[in-house]
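Narrative summary of target 7.
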Amino acid sequence: MIRAIVTDIEGTTTSVSFVYQVLFPYARTRLAAFVQAHGEEPAVRAQLDAVAREAGRPLDDGAAVAQLLAWMEEDRKVTPLKALQGMIWEAGFRGGDFTGHLYPDAVRGLRAWHARGLRLYVYSSGSEQAQRLLFGFSDAGDLTPLFSGWFDTHIGPKRVADSYRAIAARIGLPAAEILFLSDLREELDAAREAGLDTRWLVRDGGPPPGAGHVQVRDFDAVHW
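Modeled conformation, tokenized:
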């Protein structure tokens, strides 16, 4: 019996185009000014120090910004980058520059599952702060009360089975009672290796036949 659902965001609850055409450019164009204005604040400084550690060399603020921009171009899932993007996006969400895109079927599914008593969680490469902002300032309003918890790459990489074992331990349920939703095979493979049930969201196009996971077009088709 499934008692908890963990969902990815990009390509699963949220359009990939919203992430790449709205969120990423917004952060990219404001990164240098943000670091200049807030670089001495403890939370920001901690992430800039983490950039240097990740890069493996000392970096002044200008070099840190250059490294962050390079990671953005490479679409790297680096924890300090995701944290700083979340800080920048907060101003955009709170200022009304955009709202968080959610597929209508995802909204229906999340609300219905919550009403049935299932515990809902997010696991995304985006920071916990960014996750809360997207669902808190979504097209459908504030959906954060639906969720019991949030996981980002602090718990581990999304393509590693140990990350899902850690999530199951944090949730406090047997892995077999947790359903993971994603649009990426490598994440689903890792979750299944850890014992979670899986559903592959194939909203645009689709994976090859026999890919090893139950495939669904939207949240309306998720059953167990």
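The first helix runs from residue 16 to 38.
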